[in-house]
Amino acid sequence: MIAAVKKNAEQKMAKSLETLKADFSKVRTGRAHTGILDHVTVEYYGNPILISQVANVTLIDARTIGVQPWEKNMIAAIEKAIRSADLGLNPATHGDLIRIPMPMLTEERRRDLIKIVRGESENAKVAIRNIRRDANEQLKKMIKDKEISTDEEHRGQDEVQKLTDHFVAEVDKLLQLKEADLMAV
C-alpha cells in the first residue's frame, strides 16, 4: 500500500522534473539549437501541425537554424509561425530555405531570462510539494480506513519527504546549470 503511494508520487515528481526540463529548453541561450522550434505550430491544410512534421529543421552553424519545408507553398506559413511564436527570432527566406539567425543576448535580456527560469523552477517545486501533500493525504486516509498503522504512516511520510527533498534538489541543480548557461557569453 505505502509502496504504491510512494511509487505514484515518485512518477508524478519525475513528470514535473521532465516538464521543467522541457520549459528550460524553450528559454533560449545565445547558441542555436533546433529544440527551440519544437513547440511552434504552423497551419497545414487548416490544421495546426508542428514545424518538424512539415519541414527539416537543422543547424546551419552555431548561431543559425535552417528550416527546409517539404512543400514550397509552406515557406511563408512557416516563416509567419516562427515570427508569431514570440521567441524573439527573425527568420529570413533564401530560395527554399528559411534561415533563422540567433541574436546575441544583451545583459538585460539575460537577467530577464534568469528571472523567467527562476519562476519556472519555483513552479516545479510547488508542483512537487503539492504531490507530497497529496501522497501524505493518501497515507492519512489509509490510517482512517485502518489499512495501515500510525508507525507505517510516519515511515511512509518520511519516505515521501525524502523523495520530495531529492526532486527539489534536482530542480535546484537544473536551475544552476541553466543560469550558468544563460550567463555564459
TrEMBL record:
Originating organism: Candidatus Nitrotoga fabula
Name assigned to this protein: Ribosome-recycling factor
UniProt lineage: Bacteria, Pseudomonadati, Pseudomonadota, Betaproteobacteria, Nitrosomonadales
Single annotated GO MF: ribosomal large subunit binding
Gene: frr
Family assignment from sequence similarity: Belongs to the RRF family.
InterPro entries tied to this protein: Ribosome_recyc_fac (IPR002661), Ribosome_recyc_fac_dom (IPR023584), RRF_sf (IPR036191)
HAMAP family in alphabetical order: RRF
Gene Ontology CC annotations of this record: cytosol
Cellular localisation: Cytoplasm
UniProtKB keywords: Cytoplasm, Protein biosynthesis
Any Pfam family matching the protein: RRF
Start and end residues of each Ribosome recycling factor domain: 20-183
Annotated function: Responsible for the release of ribosomes from messenger RNA at the termination of protein biosynthesis. May increase the efficiency of translation by recycling ribosomes from one round of translation to another.
One Gene Ontology biological process: cytoplasmic translational termination
